[in-house]
């Protein structure tokens, strides 16, 4: 992927604050409510992200597992919020919103093992970034250890990847979200 494709991740400080510089090598798309596709840096309203999204993964083949980490990602998918509880004072960052492991390549996250259930983004103050990070599980299925703490606060995507031998991400997508006021709902 060209540097231009990485630009929104760099400008949005996802690269540097959540993940290190990486070379995207797998296609990943995130869609809420069957029609709201996530694009880097775009804003989605809280009502749109109230239910778990569909996450489609490219990859090599069905035998290659991935992990998804989400909030502030064989396939590991992770979702984290690096701005929790507020962008001006993110002392609990990252907040883990979702984690799915053992996702077969060329499928979607529903085929994986959800190890941390989806938590609806509920930003209270300021604009929050919600980051989906996808890792290729190099050591095969059932090799990723879920987080040991019950708290979703103070999660570190990069430390988690290092502890599980995941290396650098293969795909990252993020969106912005802020509290929906009565005036913004009109």
Automatic annotation (TrEMBL):
This is Uncharacterized protein. CDD domains: PEBP_euk. Belongs to the phosphatidylethanolamine-binding protein family. Coiled coil: none annotated. PANTHER family: PHOSPHATIDYLETHANOLAMINE-BINDING PROTEIN (PTHR11362), PROTEIN BROTHER OF FT AND TFL 1 (PTHR11362:SF108). Pfam families: PBP. Signal peptide: none annotated. InterPro entries: PEBP, PEBP-like_sf, PEBP_euk. One of its GO terms (biological process) is vegetative to reproductive phase transition of meristem.
């Amino acid at each position: 992927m060209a540097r231009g494709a990485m630009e929104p991740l760099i400008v949005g400080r996802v690269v540097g604050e959540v993940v290190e510089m990486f070379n995207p090598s797998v296609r990943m798309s995130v869609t809420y409510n069957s029609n709201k596709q996530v694009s880097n840096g775009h804003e989605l309203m809280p009502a749109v992200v109230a239910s778990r999204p569909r996450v489609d993964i490219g990859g090599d083949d069905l035998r290659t597992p991935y992990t998804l980490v989400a909030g502030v990602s064989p396939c590991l998918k992770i979702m984290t919020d690096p701005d929790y509880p507020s962008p001006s004072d993110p002392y609990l960052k990252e907040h883990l919103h979702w984690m799915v492991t053992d996702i077969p390549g060329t499928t979607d996250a529903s085929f994986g093992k959800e190890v941390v259930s989806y938590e609806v983004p509920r930003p209270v103050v300021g604009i929050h970034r919600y980051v989906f990070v996808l890792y290729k599980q190099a050591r095969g299925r059932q090799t990723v250890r879920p987080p040991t703490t019950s708290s979703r606060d103070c999660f570190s995507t990069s430390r988690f990847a290092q502890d599980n031998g995941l290396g650098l991400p293969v795909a990252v997508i993020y969106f912005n979200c802020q509290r929906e006021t009565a005036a913004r709902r009109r």
